[in-house]
Amino acid sequence: MAQFMMLLHDKLDGFSALSHDEMMSVIKEYTAWTEKMIAEGRFLGGEKLKDEPGRNLLAGTDGIETHAGPFTETNEMIGGYMSIEAADYDEAVKIAKTCPHAKYGRIELREIDPIK
Question: The whole model's pTM is what?
Answer without folding.
Answer: 0.83
